[in-house]
Each structure stands twice: as structure tokens, then as C-alpha cells.
């Protein structure tokens, strides 16, 4: 109840960005559903069209955001052409089937409303988006808003590889007139509310069970603390790519299953939708291409094996399960990589155990889809060990990094859970009177588990900015000279299975100083011995005139600063935050 009240409070305070994002999402979803209806007709139910449209809603809005952010006459012209191009298409589209009262489509709509309110509760306790990545995303969005089309051309030759999220956020911030930080928080939570609805389609279409599809929704929404926890890491682009990934995979699945029913005249609409989906997935996060390739490979292998015999497929399935177990034990011995299983063990172990048990029934009734899901999960884990070299500006890369794999593993698990429930229902059909209630029991079990264990609010693990920090940064903007160079705390980032770290990243709220105040900041190790002369000489050499000590996170040791008043003079002293001037260089 508290979460719902907090959600309503955020809705009242930030109705503008919420309304803009939801209107864009639902209008785009409807447009995509209409386009798909042209090709697949009655092969999909209204709920399936709704689910697949939700998966792909970002694609048209992303194209609109690119035109919008160009700005000026060119931008308006491109938007006009985009709208004009849609008009004749709308007259060709077949209307969507109307959902009957009490239908699954209405249930999905209620889920959407409930999920949005619950997710918005997160915003009520977040001063700024969490973790150091969020500050980077904030800066990129601000640059787009400030420079428009010229920044887009700069991006084309830049080293930044997942800017689709930033174009979208810039569009929402521009239209809603809300603060960028607020839009980031709201967009992230609304996207988390939409993603589970996208999982309904593949399960429902494969099993023809609405209950299995709903169970997959509940699993992906609240079964584990991933993918929602990724917002605490500032992984907004990675989260945004999940929708396009599901959209592309859903379209590819439909093509494979219904290719004979699509007329040659209508295929261009569907091919265009598929191409737009791939473009959107790659632009939001380049590593989504790896995920798409992994699932495609798993599908091809499963299809080839199915043509031989069930025996061959069963043997291959056993080999894959054995390989997955070997990966599990090997990864568990790697300190950095072992965290990939954390969401699905510990608090998540009851739900993971349930899914593993249901996988048995999934394999009995839906062997190919089960094979694809398990093999995809195995390959996702294996991608942690495949090195990638010769990418300018990057070193020590693997196909996928640990946070990305940790975030995306919920997808194959949710699909297996839905397939398994449908398989169990099929096995119980006509044997036990209570068999028709097994779906309700499964959904209720996940809901009860989530009620006692799920955290809808920001995690303390990743918060690096407190109330004092926000006040201190406002003081910095007003009191320190524009040309000031400020030293901020940093720590080593290590998410790859290599001996060396991936570099230094901001360790406290100091990472927000440049985005919010336009002052230059310099990363310094958070454990730097400021009470030793070599540290002072380093500050002087780097021409650092000020030091920022944050409230939370991993800030500098303030005791080392106050031990040398002849080197460091306090300019702002708050209970948990401080700004010091370096005076020992004179």
C-alpha cells in the first residue's frame, strides 16, 4: 500500500513526463500492432498484438526523436515527412480485433496501470539517478538538448555506442519541460513497467495458454530483483535495449512460423518493421546485437536437431545442461563473475527452483522452445569468456560483460517458467480437478514471494548522492569560479574476468559536479593519502584547486584533510559533505 501511495504521489508531482512517455509508448504500440495486423491477420490475438506492440514501441519514437533533436527547419521538415508517410499506411492497416469484456487484453492493461504505479514509487526516494553511469547519461542528454543537430553529427564520429536512449530522453525532456534527471528516473521506471508485458507474446503464442503468458509476465516483473536493479547501476541504455530485443525476436519467430501466410505485397511492411527493430536495438545498446545472434544461433541449432530425431535433440539437451552446470561451478569460483547469479540465488532461489522444476514439463511438451531458451542462457554465460579485441578506445572487453548478462538472464528463465506452466497444465488436463488452478497457484506464489522480499525503492548499494551533496553542488555552482578544477573521489571498476580493472570511475556525488555545474573535475583515488606530501604535490601538478568530499558512497577521508589546515582550507563544512580549497601549492 505504501508503494502505491508513493506512486500516486510521484504521478501527481511529475505528471508531465509520465504523460508524455506513456502517450508516446501507447500510441507507438498501437501503430506497430496495426502494422503487424496487416501481415498476420487473425493469427495473433488482441493480447498478443498488444504485447508485441509494447515490445517494439521504442522504434517509431526513436526515429521521431532523431528528427526532433535535429531541430530547426530541417527537423520540422523531417517530422512532417515522417507523419505524412504514415498517413497512407494507416488506411491500409486492418483494424485490431476488439478485446472481449474480461479478456486477457484488459488484464494486461490493468497490469500496465498497476506496474506503472508500483514502479514510480522508486522515484519518490531518489534525489538523482543512481551510480556514476547516470551522470554520464545525464551529460549526453544535456549536450543533445544544448546542441541539437550539430551534436548528432558529432556523435556519428564519436566513441559512444548506445546513444538511442539519450535521444529518447532528450525528446521526453524537451516535450515535457521537465528536468533531465527527473525524466531519466521516470523513463527508467515506466520502461520497467512495460518490459514484462512484452514477455507475454512468445509464451502465449507458443503454448496458446493465457495463464502461462500471465505467469511469464509476473515472473519477469517480480520474480527476481533483475532487471529492475539495473537502474541502480545507471544501466538505462541496456534496459532500453530489452524491448527492441524482444520485438526483433518476436518478429523473427512469427516469420519462421507463419511465413507461408504472408503475401508478397505485405512482406515489405514486416521486413521494414524487422529492420527498424534491429536498428533500434543496436542504437540503444550495441551489445544487443550479440544477444540477437545468440538466440538466432540457438534457434538454428534446435531446428536442425529437430529434423533428425527427438533422440538426437534429447542427447544435445543433456550436453547443454551439463555445459551449463560446468559454467556455473566455474563462474562461482570467479570473484567478479560470481555476482552474475546473485539475483537468481539467495533471495531468488525459491523462484529459480520453481522455474527449474517447471523446465522439466516445458521440455516434455515444448522441446524446441525449451532447447532454445536453455541454450541461449548457456551461450549468454559463455559470452563472459569470449574476448573482443581491436575496438578503438576499448581494452579488455568480452562479448558481453557481467552486469549485462546478469540483467538479461531473467528473460530465458521467465520464458522457461511460462513454457513449463503450460506443459504442466497440459499434463494435468483431465487427470485432476484442481489442475486448472495450477496457474493461479503459480502466480500467487510468485506474488507472495515478491510481497515479502521485493524492494521497489532505490538500493543503498549504489546511492552516491545525498541531500547534503545536492546542497553542496548548488553552493559550488554559485560560489566557485567557472574555471575551477575540483578533485573528486574515484574507485576502480572491475566487471571483467581480467586481472586489470576497467578504469577509474566516480565514487561519490562528486561525479555529478560537472554535469550539474559545468565545473571541471579530476578523478583521484578515494584512498589517496592527503596527509602525505606526495599527494599534495600531485594536486599541485594537476592544478587542482578544490576537493569535494561526498556524503555517501566511497568519499575521501576527511580526517586526512583536516589534519593539515596549512594545505587544505574548508570552504563549505556540512555534517556529511565538504568542499576544501587546496592552499598548500603557494
Our estimate of the beta-strand percent is 5-15%
Provide the domain count.
2
Low-confidence stretches: none
Give the overall shape, derived from the CA principal axes.
globular
Structural class: alpha/beta
Assembly classification: single chain
Helix content: 55-70%
Strand segment count? 8
Structural write-up:
The chain is of the alpha/beta class. It is built from 24 helices and eight strands. α2 (15-40) crosses α4 (58-70), α4 (58-70) packs across α9 (164-176) and α7 packs across α9 (164-176). The longest helix is centred in the first third of the chain and has 28 residues, at 180-207.
Brief description of this entry?
This protein is α/β, with parallel strands linked by helices. The chain has helices at 2-13, 15-40, 46-56, 58-70, 72-92, 104-120, 131-147, 149-156, 164-176, 180-207, 210-222, 236-258, 267-284, 288-308, 310-332, 349-365, 367-382, 402-408, 410-428, 438-453, 467-479, 513-517, 533-541, 558-562, and strands at residues 387-388, 397-398, 485-492, 504-506, 520-525, 546-549, 568-573, 578-582. 63% of the residues lie in helices and 6% in strands.
Features:
63% helix, 6-stranded mixed beta sheet, alpha/beta, 8 strands, 586 residues, single chain
Present the secondary structure layout.
Layout: H1 2-13, H2 15-40, H3 46-56, H4 58-70, H5 72-92, H6 104-120, H7 131-147, H8 149-156, H9 164-176, H10 180-207, H11 210-222, H12 236-258, H13 267-284, H14 288-308, H15 310-332, H16 349-365, H17 367-382, E1 387-388, E2 397-398, H18 402-408, H19 410-428, H20 438-453, H21 467-479, E3 485-492, E4 504-506, H22 513-517, E5 520-525, H23 533-541, E6 546-549, H24 558-562, E7 568-573, E8 578-582
Parallel strand pairs: 3-5, 3-6
Antiparallel strand pairs: 1-2, 3-4, 6-8, 7-8
